[in-house]
Every structure is written in structure tokens, then in C-alpha cells.
Amino acid sequence: MQKVISFGEILMRLSPPGNLRFDQATSFNAVYGGGEFNAIASLANFGLKTEFVTAVPENALGDCVINTIRSVNVGCENILRQGDRLGLYFIEMGASVRSSNVIYDRAESSIAQIGTNNFDWAKIFKGATWFHWSGVTPAISQEAAGACLEAVKKASEMGLKISTDLNYRSKLWNYGKEPYDVMPELLQYSNVIIGDIDTARFMLKKDKIAPDYKNKDEVKQAFLELMEFLPNLDSIGMVFRESVNASHERIGGLLYNNNKLYSEKIRDVIPIVDRVGSGDAFMAGLLYGLLEFDENFQKTIEFATAACILKHSIFGDVNRVSKEEVINFIDNDGAAKVKR
Amino acid sequence: MQKVISFGEILMRLSPPGNLRFDQATSFNAVYGGGEFNAIASLANFGLKTEFVTAVPENALGDCVINTIRSVNVGCENILRQGDRLGLYFIEMGASVRSSNVIYDRAESSIAQIGTNNFDWAKIFKGATWFHWSGVTPAISQEAAGACLEAVKKASEMGLKISTDLNYRSKLWNYGKEPYDVMPELLQYSNVIIGDIDTARFMLKKDKIAPDYKNKDEVKQAFLELMEFLPNLDSIGMVFRESVNASHERIGGLLYNNNKLYSEKIRDVIPIVDRVGSGDAFMAGLLYGLLEFDENFQKTIEFATAACILKHSIFGDVNRVSKEEVINFIDNDGAAKVKR
Amino acid sequence: MQKVISFGEILMRLSPPGNLRFDQATSFNAVYGGGEFNAIASLANFGLKTEFVTAVPENALGDCVINTIRSVNVGCENILRQGDRLGLYFIEMGASVRSSNVIYDRAESSIAQIGTNNFDWAKIFKGATWFHWSGVTPAISQEAAGACLEAVKKASEMGLKISTDLNYRSKLWNYGKEPYDVMPELLQYSNVIIGDIDTARFMLKKDKIAPDYKNKDEVKQAFLELMEFLPNLDSIGMVFRESVNASHERIGGLLYNNNKLYSEKIRDVIPIVDRVGSGDAFMAGLLYGLLEFDENFQKTIEFATAACILKHSIFGDVNRVSKEEVINFIDNDGAAKVKR
Amino acid sequence: MQKVISFGEILMRLSPPGNLRFDQATSFNAVYGGGEFNAIASLANFGLKTEFVTAVPENALGDCVINTIRSVNVGCENILRQGDRLGLYFIEMGASVRSSNVIYDRAESSIAQIGTNNFDWAKIFKGATWFHWSGVTPAISQEAAGACLEAVKKASEMGLKISTDLNYRSKLWNYGKEPYDVMPELLQYSNVIIGDIDTARFMLKKDKIAPDYKNKDEVKQAFLELMEFLPNLDSIGMVFRESVNASHERIGGLLYNNNKLYSEKIRDVIPIVDRVGSGDAFMAGLLYGLLEFDENFQKTIEFATAACILKHSIFGDVNRVSKEEVINFIDNDGAAKVKR
Amino acid sequence: MQKVISFGEILMRLSPPGNLRFDQATSFNAVYGGGEFNAIASLANFGLKTEFVTAVPENALGDCVINTIRSVNVGCENILRQGDRLGLYFIEMGASVRSSNVIYDRAESSIAQIGTNNFDWAKIFKGATWFHWSGVTPAISQEAAGACLEAVKKASEMGLKISTDLNYRSKLWNYGKEPYDVMPELLQYSNVIIGDIDTARFMLKKDKIAPDYKNKDEVKQAFLELMEFLPNLDSIGMVFRESVNASHERIGGLLYNNNKLYSEKIRDVIPIVDRVGSGDAFMAGLLYGLLEFDENFQKTIEFATAACILKHSIFGDVNRVSKEEVINFIDNDGAAKVKR
Amino acid sequence: MQKVISFGEILMRLSPPGNLRFDQATSFNAVYGGGEFNAIASLANFGLKTEFVTAVPENALGDCVINTIRSVNVGCENILRQGDRLGLYFIEMGASVRSSNVIYDRAESSIAQIGTNNFDWAKIFKGATWFHWSGVTPAISQEAAGACLEAVKKASEMGLKISTDLNYRSKLWNYGKEPYDVMPELLQYSNVIIGDIDTARFMLKKDKIAPDYKNKDEVKQAFLELMEFLPNLDSIGMVFRESVNASHERIGGLLYNNNKLYSEKIRDVIPIVDRVGSGDAFMAGLLYGLLEFDENFQKTIEFATAACILKHSIFGDVNRVSKEEVINFIDNDGAAKVKR
């Protein structure tokens, strides 16, 4: 059985109830999530064996994170308890014509302060077949980037496949390095990435090309070029996302593999309950397909896109749907009848 | 003045708040409802004299049911207090692309355990003009089916008109009988039914015909054929319902009477607050029209369809709208302006 | 720096949570608002210096009103504490096909009982450049209409510009006067009004003309005619609003100035969080543009319409958006992406 | 079987959640209650046949009142729908050292505006054995006092027993009459009253005597004197209440009948959930005992005092306890073990 | 390291918010718990390795139970997914003078329907050192009693120590057996029991002796006698509990071992947040002491009593306190200062 | 009229609802407070003119702080908008035998990062008569301590009286300085301090003396000694606080002035709603008395102690009571009757 390991940060997310603005809130709903965790938790929901590696402070909020990891059936045997604070962020949920707003408060968090050699990667990867990380982690701090490099080297050495969600967040890169200083070395080890073409190019210090995603040949050509920069890369996935407004998106998906481009049609998603984590849900769907669908890449991109769409209907960061629910969605082409 | 009696089960319905999934809920909203009660409560809201007959346990939850019946001005003078438990069900409310899920927990409820001759139907029907029941009740248990038969026989004998919502729920028929073993005898007494054509045919042990509901002649022919099997039948009503997703339906209505087919146009209903009980709201609208609109069948199907549509905007099982609100909806063709 | 004064009533608004009907509510959400206050609070959010003049009772609810005024950075130095009760209203929020319902309970409120010469308008207007009032206030009582007249006379004498939201509420005019008995004198002093053409005509005791708002020449002609009745009038603004249902409106805007008609396109607003106060948000946007956009009337009507649309996404009466958010909305033509 | 009629006002009560102060509340919990209704609803809970007579406006809030009456199994066949507004009051619940605060907003309510001969008392009292009213009603308005007088005269004429809760609220008597102008005539018809000695004396325009309630002889003498002023009076009941703080009271009870004084010991009640309506709960307990306990006055005062104490543990105005629960409380002397 | 296994049922517990009565509740708070699980979860909180064995249905509510087990770090590798329903119960939380009320709805639950040989006890007990069960399980059904017997035999054979909470619930024993038909055989294997003397005697079919718990000699003598009936028994623990009212208890503890009686003083516990599971918390404290405190029985009874007391301050069934918090409570003798 | 200025940090406080533990919370209640702000807001409630000086980030959470300051009628004209984050803390509210727990997360907050000369103290103090600060601020960072020193020097120079709450929080002093390195210089300027004797001695680097607070002579002697170290000191106030458990404290007060010791008796406070900020409430009461009670020191300590006690009944950090409510508490010696 496949076992997937992931590494990254879990944040407390605080959001005003319903559609209230920050200055109307007398309480905040709290969930715990983060890109890499969201992906791995979704894989656990699909039935895979998983484990999450992170660092949290030795206090009750750190305990809350670990309870959360446990409750979704993700392994938590290799979590560091250190550092002074849990990273957190505030999000004001948008509605129709009003945007969501995010205020990050994650500086100096436990994971930003991990030093070298804190994780015993050889022990962590024992028995595992896949390692997943994202571009958020090397953006956090020099130390976090260093831990990423240790991890991908050891994973590669031990024969695990490696996937990466590029996830560029400009605000995070503020310890004196740019993504193109750090990511190219890290991405050498990746077998699968998700992200759009220009984000990948930026991280590899290539010019923007602003591809027309409706032109399949152009897109294939652009993906092909990316493959050339990254020798171990097999597959590139990408969510096609158009934001009509805060309650309405249009979502499709692309998967490039072995010089073929697979795509899933674009669907309207309306109304949106919570779009946070929908990219991570896509990532999990993609990994699940690559791991379990015997190189059926068309089925894989359909599954990944459906998983991404379903996430929009679920409160919180994690895609709380089973494999059966994703397949049921595909089989009914999204018509959501009462199950009774 | 018309007095309508109904008989059936009331369940406690437990649903996670808002759009939460079952495993995110730390509380459940509770309402009390059931197909037959929902219909009769809606008739009470329209201003008719009504009474509901059921059995509930002799405990505080049974009291809650009775308070609920009373609070919506439905009579509750003939309710049995017996049995060990109140039937209940859990519903996770879907949102946009995600379906609602129902978990029934109604086995061994008070009404499933009623014996023979527990209800004094002659007393119950005294002064009443109409009796309404649904296909859910005979599905619950042999005893419940027996009570139904006692009721329809006595109602018929005492000259009441009888209506039936076919309401086929396959999971409930598990006491060794199939609907076609039980329903044909019961339906002989019905003057009005609602349900789609193939459900009716299945209950009468006829082949499926999968009619094209957009072909009026075909539909009329199919209804005509049903009339032939059920000698007392005057009218057949049916909700036309297309589920776009969990937040969006398309609703219209059909009424067949005396070889004429009356229909109300299809409207988009978006967003949906709560679709549970919308069929019961249609039933109530239909009965109200048949009782009060002097054989104006077109007005009747318009009223029933509008009532059904309005129910989608109301939390809980019961259609909490007045006759005036239904008429106002029709008059404004659904444009819902602030009333002030 | 501009300083805007407004005068009117603030009510406690009580609404059942979410989409519940009045008879389902075991609690009511409470906010404090009123047309004139909503407009002035929105101007404060845009960064102008403001003050609100009203009367509230000398009890804890009066204190709540004053805390509310203060918390949105509106001045409250000239508020009378008198009278027995705070006006209030109940609103049941509609959803999709179901209308919102309003029950007013504002009779005999503090402001309805103010006498003559209670406000020292010369002191209030000192240092101010603009005075805003609405047609609600003279509708409340003879005394309130008298205070309005004192205010507009003094404001005019002291050289302030004056704006008026016509805001006709038929239910309020019940102290023996009709709008056309009172409003013509009051409106003589107005430099800016908002309201539709037939409302203005009715208040001026002119015949209804039911203009076709899609015919620009016809509309211009109608506005021109209005200008003739009101010698000080410079500008007329109007929200174009079409209610598809309680969750969906179509909103555009018109501004007439110096014989030119400026308009902003119609946009779909779906879903609606809370439409109360959206006209006041338009008023505030219009005033802000007139005060700050150097006679750029096209920019003004775009700003006013965008402010009005954004209000629909915000719970409560007041448009809690900044100038930057309105501009951002215009720049992105309403596509509400997550800000992070 | 006994049937008890009561007459008075039902108010909407709005209270901030938990222990919040008015200026911290963003919502208010809503219940519907009033002294006379609270008493009658409690009697219905004890199993008696009851009916409540009042006036409420013809709007959705009036409907809420009627649903409330119905849901507790009190008859509502003779309620007037008239007038503009439902009376309401705001209450900030105290906690430990902080007092509860009440803001009344009941002026010009439906019941304050009832005219003469609006109620058909002969029809209302048909089949009834007891009539209950309180000193709140004649305090509301001249019209309400007039209706009270009509009621007691007719009740007396038709042979009903009459009980009165003196309930002096100084703030309400503001239509130009004092209690001693109105109450003496009304009280002539009373068979039972509850209230303390000096309240009764004040209403009868006698001097205060400030009795020492621990001196039984003094108290008996004082009660005896009261009997002399009121020829039909049989019994006088009184709650002995000492407020330690907002979460802690000490409650006992006294009943005077036929020159004998019966008392129930004083118990500590801590913590208090909601003390509103505890006097009405005492009243109901007293009436129940007088009606059902075969002149066992000691049992009656024990039952009334226990009912009063239990009310302190129940949110809302109405004492939602059964007869069995009151008796169980007495039998266990207040030790509240889990029932399972 | 010690590993403790437990076996029993987990129920969904539904309780009205705060102090509301059942008929006031529009929602129910939901937690998952049961005597044996509460004890084992508390041991996991104290830091021991644990596992819980049970049966839950193959639906979303069964998933919720398993998530709950996981989230508190209890093993769940040997849980059966079978049967139609999750047992549940409703509890109305008492307050001060009003009792809590429980309505059980656990008939025909998954665990009541387990057959023979469904659990592989040899595999389950591998590596474990202790097995804990309670008298609730054999009361549920013949099958559940049979599974208990299989378990204790295998546990004993494999050298595990066995503890039992007697937990007599008369309402559950309704499958034709009495406790004294079933428990004596089961208890032969127990090394530790908790329960009061007369409950133990009843289960062993001995006469009641109603011991005076303040007389140490009498109590010792009674415990000694119990030891004689149960050859493997080492220790007997007992909570001393006096219910002043629903918000106030007086709690102490007794532990009998090797003819010595250890006791912890009685403390007032006021106010009580939630007393459900406090006996299980005592059980867990006792086991923890017996496992970890090197035969320091005085320290053990102090720890168990403190754990029991602390549970009263925690919402839900499980004692969510750490070992450090229990010790801190003892060290400060219950004075709960803010930790900052 | 007196105008009081204060300077310090405002934190967002996040607490699980009711009595839930951190790991049970799915939401957190949010209020904004801090020792110095709590004191000044309480003074504003008592009717004094006040202003608060602080630094908050230029984001929506900073806006929330400013709205909070405004809403309680405290001036906010001199607040810096700078720095990356708002300090925050999490508090789990204890109940009965369980302690409250605090997790601070205030490192690197806006105020910790203020530089030198950022505040124009001369402008700030213009027209003011009193400056209040606490020992928390110099503990935050070198910069914050520097700003304190600037402030007290300028305040002293401009003739303001200065008060200080010693408020020793050991966890905060971690920038390389100890309180006795910093506080002695700062305290030279104080006219009034509150704090217990050994805290003061520690900050002045004197030995602990552990005075017996029940021995008045010993206490007077100890206060006298403190006066000698601080030449400008006039008065020392102190809350006498004994924590029985998390729901029960015993509170009294001491005030030393001009070699006289004034005291207020100790009262039981039970149950406690929220004890956070009760020391600040005492501080505010003390200042109010010193400013307004014409050297009536006995009245001052009674007022301060009563204010402190009342705070325990109010949710949130700020003592939301008026001067009249404090006096009413004193006049009734704490018996909290309903006000109506």
C-alpha cells in the first residue's frame, strides 16, 4: 500500500462568522490547515496511508494542531514540539461582489525557526513511497528551505517519488532570497508539480510567456519546455480557475504527461462555501490518480478537477470528501441530489 | 368549513449548522417533521381546520412533537403515547455541487409498533371532510400498514375524500412486503394522488414507461391509464423537478383531472435554503386548491407549484407561508421585493 | 477638509438569524441604523469628517446608539437625550423566492417627539460644508418636519450645500400632512437629490409620467423638468434597481447634472447578503464623488453605483467599505479575488 | 375538570445572551411572556384546562404570541387582533454582584388601546371555574382597567372564583390614576390574592406597617386586617424572598387562610438561571394547590414555594415544570440528582 | 510501557444548549462518549498507550465516533463496522435545584447486535498489560455479555490485569437476565473494581447492608467481605458523592487494598459544568495510580479523586485534563488561579 | 475638567466560548483590551475625559482596535499605525476547580517595535492633568521602556500627576533587562502606584518581606518604607484578593496615603463571569476617587474595591459600569436586585 509523507506548516485560521467583516466580528471560527497538510489530509480521506511532518509549539495550541492531524487519520509520529508560537492567519470571507481578505500572522512561528538536522528524514521516509512539499515552505525562512532540501535529497535517495505544489506567495519571501535562488535546486528532485506555467517559469528565472490556455498546442509547447528544465519531472498539473466573483468561480483542469495534454471541462461553481484549500484538493486528487489509476491520465485529471470543485462546498481548509463522493460527482456530472 | 385529518409519523430531524459536514458538527439543529404532518401543517397555515394522528413515546421528546403540532395550530387530540422511541433522522445539508446526505434512524419507533385497533377512526373522522395519508406509512411496518387500511376504509365509509402522496422510499420497505403487495388495496380508496407516473405504476405492479414529461399527449395518456386502475381517483398531481445542483432546482407542476392536463411553468429556484418538505408543500397547495378554488384546476396547479417553490426558501420541514404569501408570489411572478 | 452634517433617526433593527422566519426565531440579531446615518457613516468610512444629529432616549439603548455612532468615527456632540423610547423595526430577511418583511415599531420615538428650537443649528453647522437629510424625517411628525425646516434654512443661510434622499415611505406620513404639503418648501433648499422621477414629481404634486429609464432623452427631459421646480438644484442621482428575487438584483446608476446624463452600467448582484441601506450607500458614494472628484460626474456615478452594489454584500445597515475597496471593485469590474 | 381563565398582556422579552450587557449585545434572545400568562401557562403544565385572553396586533409578532400560547397548551380562542404594536421589554440579565436591568417599551401596545366591551366575557367564562388577573393590567391604561372591571364583575356573577396577583409596578401607573383609585373596587371580587402586606395596604390606601415576617403573630394579625377590607377574600399568599445577589436568593412562602398561617421553609437558590416569572410560578402553584389539594393548605404552600424555586432554574418567563417535577423536588428536598 | 485496552459502547450524546429544557431546544450539542471510552480516553490524556474496542455502523455517524477516538489519541485498529444504528442518548442539563434528565435511545445499536467470535481478542490483547470493562456492556444484550466473557477469559489467559466499573443501570438489563445471573462469572477475573458496596453485593446476589461510609471499620469489613467472593480481586475503589443540587456536589474517594483503607477528603464542587463521566474519570485516575505510582495507594486515591473532581468542570463526557493538571490541583488543594 | 492620558498595548483576546477547553473550541470569542486601556476605558465610563496612546498595525485588525477605543469614548487622536502585527493572547476560561490558562502571543507586536521619539508627548499631554502607565509596557521591549521614560519625564515636566500599576509579568521581561534595572527610574515620577508590597520591593530591588496583610501596623510600616524609596509618591493602592477557586474570589482593598491606611472589607464574589481586568478596574476606581472625591480616601478605597468586584461580573477586559452603578453597589452592599 502506498504511503505518502508531507512536510510543511499548519496554521490556525480565524474567520468572522458567515459574511461578517473583521470589524463586525465578536467571535472567530477556528480551523487548522496549511497547503501541504490539506493535500495529505485529503489523501487520507481517499484511503491512503499518510503522515505529516511539521513543528508546533509545546502548548495547548500545538496540541490542537496534533489532535486535528490525528482526527483526519494522518500520522503524526514525527512532529517537533518547539518554538514560541503557532503561525496563524485571519480571513474575512467575501460574498458575491466583495473579496475575501487575508491577514497573515505567521512570522516567527515554530516551523520558521527549525534548525538543521532536526528531522530524521531516513526514519520518516522508511516504508513510504511518495513525498509531497510545496513552495510555501522554502519561502518561510532559510531554515525551512534548508529542511526542504534535506528532505528532497533523502527522499530521492530512498527512491520516493516527489511532488510539489509551486504555490508562490510573494509576501512570504522576505529573508533575503528570491524563489529563483532556492527553488531550482529543490525542483530538480520533483516528479510531479502543479502550478501555472508562468509561476513555474518565474521560479526557474525564465521570462513570462502569458500562454493562452485555450490554445492546446501553445500550452503543450510551454509544458514541454518546462520539462526540459526539470530532468526528473514526469507530470505537470494545473487548475484552470476563473473568478467571476467571491461566490462564483469557473473551474477546469489540465494535466500534461509524456507529451500529452489531458483536460477536464470547465464547470460553474456557485455558490462557493469556502474556496481556501481548493488547490490543495486538486493536488490531492492528482496524486491519488497518479498513484491509483494505472496511468489513466484522463481519469486522473477528471478526478483531480472534481475534487477541487467539491472542496468549494466545504467549510474549512481540508477537502472532507471520500473517493466515492468524488466519483459520484463525476458520474452525475455535478447534479447533487439528496442521498437517502 | 373543511376539516382535514392526516395520519403518519413525525421524526426529529437533526442537521449540522449551515453547510457543515457530519464530522464537523459539534451541534445539530433540531426540527420535527414528516411528510404527512408537513402537508397538514401547511394546510393549517392556509387557514383550514386540521388534525394530525400519530403515535409518540411517553417522554419529553414525545412532548416536543406535540408542542410542535400545537404551535402550528394543528389538532392533536387523538395522538397515542406509546412505544419506546421517537424516530429520527440526520441530514447533512448539501451546498452547490455537494449533495445532501440523509441517515435514517427510525426503526422500532412508536408508530412502527402500533397494534391493531389502537385508533378510534370513527371518532377521529367525525366532522372531517378529507383524509390524507402517504406511502411512507405502510412502508414502516405491518402494523402501520394495517392502521392505514383501517383508516382509509373508515374514511371512505364516512364519506371523506382521500388523498395520497405516493412517496416511495425503497429503504423503508423491509418487513417482508413490497409496495405492490400493499399499496393497490390502499389506493383503491384514494380520490387524489401525487407522485410521478412510474412510481405509481411500480406500486400498481405495472411496467415502467419512462414518459417524456414535455410531451403533453404522452403524459395525458399515461395519467389516463392510471385512472383506470384506481376507480375512485379524480385527480393526479405531480411536481416537475430538475436538480441542477444542491443549491439550484427547476420546479414546475402538473395536474390531471377529468381528462384534462393543467400545468404551471418551470421556474429556477436559487439559492435553496431547505428543500426537505417541498413535495409536501406541493401536496398541501394542491389540496387547498381542490378544496377551496371551486374546480379552478389551473389556479390549483399554480397555487400548488408556487407553494412548493416557496418552501425551498424556508428552513425546516414545514412550509411556513400563508395563503396570501403564495398568492402574492404568483401575482409578482416570483420577484421578491421587500415588504415595508 | 469637507465636513458633512446629517440629521435623522437611528432605529434598532432586529432580524431573525439567517433565513429564519419571525415565528422560527428564538433570537434576533441587532444593529442600529437609519437612512441618514447610514449615508453619513459611509462617508466617514470614505475618510470625510462627519457628524450626526439626532435624539435618543436617556437609557442604555440610547447609549448603544451613541456607541455605534462613535465606533464608526462619526461625530455625536449634538445629540439630544430625551423622549421615552428608541424607534425600532423588525426585518425578516428574505431568501431567493421569498420576500423580506418589515414591521415598523417607531411611533412615539424620541425623534418624533422633539419640539421646536431644540437644536442649536448655528452651532452645529459651524465649520461644516454640507448638510444631508432625507424625506423620512419630515414624515415622522410635525415636530420632526419643523426641525428639518429650521435646519435647511440655517444651513442655506450659512452657505452649506444641501442634499436630500427623497425616500418616500407612505406608512410614515400619518400626522395629517401629505408629502406634497411639506416637501416642496423643504426641497427649495436642496442642491442635490436622489430618488426616482415619479417620487420627486409626487412630492412636488405633479402627475406621474412613468418614464422609460432606458430612453435617455426621455429621462433627461424629465430630469430637466424637475430642475425647473427646484431653483437651487444642481444634481439628481438615481439608483436603477431591478429585483429578480430576494437574493438577486440588477443595479445600475444615473446622474443628471447641468443638462447632461451620466450613467453606470447595470450589473447582476447575486447572492445578496443584506440589501438594507444600499440606497444610502449610493447616496454616500454620490456625495463623496461630488465633494472629492472635481466635477468628474462620470467617475462620481461609477463610484456611487459601485458603493451601492458593494453594500449588498455586507450585513447590517451601514456600508462598511473604504474608498479603496470601492475603487478596487471598479478597477476589477466586480471580480472579487482573495486578497492575500 | 377545572378550567382557569386569565387576562392580561404578553410582551416580547429581549435579553442579551448570557451575561452580556446591553452595549455588548449583537443579538437578543427573545421569549414571550407576561405575569398573567406565565401563571396560566404554568397551570397548563400542571395539567389544568386553561385559556388566555389578551389583545395582540395583526402582524407576524402577534402571530408569534399566539403560537407561543398554543405551544404550551393554553387556549387562545378569544384573543383580539388589533392595535399597532406588541409591547416589549429589554432585560439585561445580572450576574453575581451585578443587578439585572429592565427597560420597558410597552406604551401604546395593543392591550393598552382596547376599548370597552371588546371582550365577550360571558362567552369567555362559560364552562370556566376560575378567573385570574393581576395588578399590572389596570395599571396599563384606563381602557385596560375598565376591561378588568368588566371581567371581574362578570366572573363573579357567573360564580367563578377570582384570584389576583397584586404586582405593583409604579412606573406603569401614569394615566392619571393611582392604584388606590382603582384597585379597591377591583379587589372586592377577589377570593385569593398574592402580594406582600404593605403592597396590599398601599393599594387599599392604608398606612405602611412594615411587618416583621419572622413574627408569625404579627403577620397573622396583619393578614387578618387585610381580610376585613376585602369581604370575598379567602386566602392570601406571599413569597418570602431575600436577594443575596443576582445569582443567589433565599426563598420561602406564606399562606394565610381562615385565620391560620401556613409556611414553607426558606431555601437557598444558587445559581439562578432566570428569576423572571418566579412570582407567577408561585401564583400558579398556589392556585393549583387551592384547586386540587382538597383544602390541604400546608401542602399547597409547599407546592407553591417549590414551584417558585424551580422557576429560578429555567430560562424564560414561564415555569416549564410538570406537577410531578414539583412534587419530586419536595420529596427530595431539592437534591437534584440525574434522572436516568 | 503500559498499554490499556478497553471494550464497550460509544453513544452520541445530544444535549440542549446551556440550561434549556428539551422543549426549549432548537439545537442540541453533540459529543460522543461512553463509560469505558471515557476512562480510556482519560488514560490517554495522562500519557498511557491505549486502545478502544467497539462496534459502530458503517455510516457517517460511525465515522464521527472513530474520528473522536482518534482525536484523543486512543487506538482504534480493532473496531467493527456493522449494525444499523449508533446508540444515542439525550440529556437535559440540570441547574441548581433542577435535576438533569436522561432519555436513552440505545436499543438495537451496533454493539447490542454483535455476535460471537467477532473480535479477535488474542490479536487485540497482544502487547497489552491491562483490560478494562464495565457492567454496562453485559447489560446491553446477550451477545454483548458473551463478548465480555470471551474478552475477560482471553485477557486473563494472556496475563493482563483486569479492571471493572460495576456501573449498574437497571433500565438496561432487559434481555431476560439479571446482573446476578451474569456478573459473578465475569467478575471472577477482575483484579480491580470500582463501585459502592451494595451495588457489588447486589451483583453478587448478596443482601444489602447499607454501610455507614463514615465508619471506617465498618467499611473495611464490608470491602474485606467482597474480596472473599472475588478471588482475583486486589483493590476496590469508590467515589464518595453527595449531591447537594445539580450545580453542587461533595466529592471524596476511598480505596481498599490489602486490608487497608485509603481515603481522600471530601471537597465541595461548585458550580458543576458537566458531571457526566466523572465516575469514569475516577476510574481512570485510579488505574493510572495503580499502574504508575509504585503501590503508593494514598497518592493513588488522591489522584483518582482529584481527577473525578476536575471532570465536573469540563463539558462533555471525557476528562480532558493532563496528569500535570491533576497534580497541580492536588498541590494547590483546588485553588484555581489563572495560569499566565 | 480632568483629562487622563494613558499609554500601553491593546491585545486581541481570544477565548473559547463558555467553559470549553482550547481543544474543544471551534470558535473563539474576541475582545480587545490591555491593562492600561482597561483602566482608561473605565475612567471614560465614569465620565472623565480620556485619551489612549498606543501603536497598532495598518491593517483591519488595527482598525478594530481603534473602533473599540472610540466606541467606549476614549480619545484616539495620537495612535501610531505601524508594525506588522497586533499582539494577541488566548485565554481558556476556568470554571470552579479548573484554572484559567493564558497563552501569550504578543512578541514582535507593533508596540514592541516602536522606536524613539515616535510620540509627540508635549502635544499629547497638552490640556491633560493625569498620566497613567503600567509595568507591562517597559517589560515589552527596550523601545517600549524608552517610550515610557520619555512619557513620564514630559508628563512630570508639564505638571501632570502620574499613576502606575506595577503589574509584574515575569514572562515578558526577556529583552535582557530585569524590572529592577528599569522600573526604579521610571517610578521616581509616580504619584500613585497600585500593587502589592513585595512586587514593589522586587522592582526596587529590595528583599521580600511577605507582610501579613491582616496586621495593619505591619502593612502601614511596609507602605511607609516604600514611600521613602519613591520621593514623589503620595498614595499606594492594593487589591486584597484570595482565589477560592476559578468561580469564587474574596476581594477587599487597601489604600495608603499620608501615613494613613484606609481599607474596604472583604466580600465573596461568586460566581465570577470574567476576572480579567479586575485589577485595572480597581486602578480606575482609585484614580476616579483621587481625582473626584476631594481627598475622601475612605470613599475612594470603597469605590475602587466596589469597581473591582463589579468587574468580575462582566465579560471582556473592560469594566463596563457607570459611576452610578458602583455607588449603587456600595449603597446596597452588593445585594443585586432587578432594576425595573
Question: What report would you give on this structure?
Answer:
The structure is a homohexamer. Chain A is α/β, with parallel strands linked by helices and about 350 residues long. Chain A is globular. Chain A has 11 helices and 14 strands. At the A-F interface, strand 3, helix 2 and strand 8 of A face strand 3, helix 2 and strand 8 of F.
Can you give keywords for this protein?
homohexamer, 340 residues, alpha/beta, 8-stranded mixed beta sheet, 11 helices, 14 strands, 35% helix, 24% strand
Assess the beta-strand content of chain A as a share of residues: 15-25%
* Strand order in the sheet with the most strands of chain A: 4-1-9-10-11-12-13-14
**Secondary structure: number of strands of chain A:** 14
Q: Give the count of helical stretches of chain A.
A: 11
Distance between the termini of chain A: 33 Å
Helical/strand content category of chain A = alpha/beta
Q: What gross morphology of chain A would you assign?
A: globular
